[in-house]
Amino acid sequence: MSTDLFRFTKSSKTLNAVLIIIPMVLLFIGVYGGLMQTLFRAGIIQSDPFVGGDYYKGLTFHGVLNAIVFTTFFAVAFGNALVPFALKKNLNSKVAWASGILMLVGSVLAAITILMGEATVLYTFYPPLKAHPLFYIGLTLLVVGSWVAFYNWVPMYLEWRKENKGKKTPLSVVGIFATFIIWFIATLAVAVEILFMLLPWSLGLVDEINVMLARTLFWFFGHPLVYFWLLPAYVMYYVFLPKMAGGKLYSDMAGRLVFMMFILFSIPVGTHHQYMDPAIGAQWKLLHGIFTFAVALPSLITAFTIAASLEHAGKNNGGKGLFGWMTKLPYFNKENWFFPYLILGLFIFIFGGIGGIINASYQMNTVIHNTAWVPGHFHLTVAGPVMLAFLGGSLYLIGQFMNKEIRLKSWAMISPYVYTIGLLIMSYGLKIGGLMGMPRRTNTGASYANPDSILYQADWMPYIDMTVIGGVLMFIGIVIYIVSFFTTVFSKSRSDEKDAMVTFPISESLHDEPATWLRNFKPYIIIAIILIVLSYTPVIYDVITTTYGGSLPFSPDSPVPLR
Amino acid sequence: MGKNESDQELEEFKPKGAIAFFLLLMVFFMIIWFAMYFELLSRG
Fold first, then answer.
1. Do B18 and A354 touch (CB under 8 A)?
2. Minimal CA separation from B44 to chain A, in Å
3. Domain edges within chain A
4. pTM for the full model?
């Protein structure tokens, strides 16, 4: 096993600790918002008892803080940690701090406008719902800050390549770069949407907005966003998990192929979120559907490769027979508390994965479109493997960067189990409820779950109750985690010289193939751009030529335009 | 780990369990997908 150490500068360590602690506070506010959502939808509460405001304000801060703010901060902190560690080069501290400050200022602006009730636009911020201009400016700063972090790693990587001709780039760096290449391309569209459409409209410089064009630009970004969330988790599955389990990565080449395939197919898929939208030709929707199936392939390759790696580990640990290895993995070893965060995420992703394939199956989408099935699905992806990997990763990183021993390890170990049980119950309730017709986004507590309403649906109630039970368990799981996290943050630092170094559990590969055709990002980026142009040009053309006029701004609580 | 030992490990390890797991995963995916497909058909 290769246990590597690297000394980060004090400034980098402080920055990375800040990039983890502040979003953790925002995450907890968002998680609280999630719990309130289940209570709103069951009709148990009619307004938020602590933060104040209605269902849609809670839905907005739950989505924005958890799915956009926390994930972006973690991805940047993870890159700030793994890229210097793997390349053995220090970050340019000034640029890294500039990136961090942009992200922090942007997130605080967005959070304040949401909590003040000035940006109740949900996490998709679709027009004609209009937010305060500071909300859009905040999101822009968050994204620009993450770009700056990425630009900071590029010169380090180029320098490393010059010094290490013929050597393979470390797999962790390939994964982080794939994540941010996808992020950079995808966020260009949302930058256009915000800077040239939403912001002038929100400032009152223009009266109307083309809703269909804005939605299309959002989904150019919105689906690749899923891979921006998932890929750091994949880095942990390929690079950390085999070693934590006691084995080796079955194939290094499989990992590299998977990351390159994500660069190719992550972006020309967004229209599968718009199957029911007008103004886009069915043939282009079908094309995006086909690419969506292509982007499922790297996840299937991952399922096999990680299973083979875990089988290798389980057999090393004494497992026998076809499935005996599964019983020899460190599920309940508190010294290996990080393992459950990753293995449970993979387990949840079995259900999240097939749900995604169903959503992308063109006509089948009509069965689940705009129903509670959809949040049931994305809680099995972004709130499942992504959330668990990011929580485990945050606790690991905070221990490394603050030079602390992880406290309450049993709590840290048990938290993902409680959370996962809750998640499975909640998602089952949402998915089955969705198949029965229960809508997403709508506050069911005021209508379908209200016995006094003519819309009351008694047969949905068992599934709504399941979402409450699951939501409460998920919240308890997060509270257990937060206690362990902040007990670690406020504990005494280790003082010896060796412990001041940073380390990661980097797995060796069982098959370390040369994979010369997977060593350069350039051809994959070029092919990705070609696929994007081919798939999106006709979509944008259709939207522009078949829509006319625009929409005035609205808020979710009134059918009357805001101006 | 010496080179010979490493080669032996490569030669000996065949991920039969992972192959079986993957096949079962595909069967599970097909069951769920077809269940939804028939749900679609039943709605006319």
1. no
2. 11
3. 330-493
4. 0.96
